Amino acid sequence: MQTELNYDIVFDAQEHFRLLLDSMSRPGKINTFPPVDILPPEGLSHAAALTGFALLNPDATYFIAGENQDAIWEYLLINTASQRAEIAVADYVFIPEAYFGDDLYEARTGTPTYPEDSATFIIDSELISDQPHGQSLKITLRGPGVNGEAEVFISGLSADLLEFVKEQNVEYPLGLDLIITDRYNNVMGIPRSNKFSFSQPEHINL
Questions:
Q1: What is the pTM of this model?
Q2: What mean pLDDT, rounded, does the chain reach?
Q3: Which residue has the higher pLDDT, 65 or 206?
């Protein structure tokens, strides 16, 4: 596994960091990473990899949930010099498409004295859209950065994961921040300050 030579660690990282800041400050807005010719390992989308490149550094730690952990760990280590850690102390948690597991219960949610000492979930999904599609979940966002309400539709995202995050964010400013990516280089943010709700797709009886 080699360093991504087509990724500019200055120009690309700055551009992508600004895009992520915009996503977190405007929950529900769907941004798209410009194309970059990279080859992340299986289980890590281009958008999730680019998110990691923009956020990770030698002082940051991360945890990889799900399968193919070693390949993703090595890829992020080579390209960011950041270090893998247990989820209980990790700054960032990379979560594969449609995943929810008991390991996520150990993620940091901050303390009353240091609420910012919490984890950010970087979650892969199938598709983020402003229109319903397939078995997508409808997420309604309310709070800072949202003019009234915003709605997005996401497929390949675990409803159990969203319910878990809602529970963790009840005692704001404690909680978890979310960055959701998809297979098409799209990204959106849900900060812990957002009072989002979601509904599962209706099943049609044939």
A1: 0.95
A2: 95
A3: 65
Residue 205 has pLDDT above 50, yes or no: no
In contact, 198 and 159? CB cutoff 8 Å: yes
User: Check: CATH 3.40.50.11310 for 11-130+159-193?
Assistant: yes
The crossing angle, in degrees rounded to 10, of helices 46-55 and 69-80 is 40
Report cis status (omega within 30 of 0) of the bond before 112.
Answer: no
| Concatenated DSSP letters of 129-198 | ESS--TTPEEEEE-STT-SS-EEEEEES--HHHHHHHHHHTTTTTSS-EEEEE-TTSEEEEE-TT---EE
- The helix/strand/coil state of 17 is helix
DSSP per-residue codes, 41-106: PTT--HHHHHHHHHH--TT-EEEE-SS-HHHHHHHHHHHH--EE--TTT-SEEEE-TT---GGGGG
Query: Phi first, then psi: what are they for 83, rounded to 5°?
Result: -120, 140
Domain positions in the chain: 11-130+159-193
DSSP-based three-state secondary structure for 7: coil
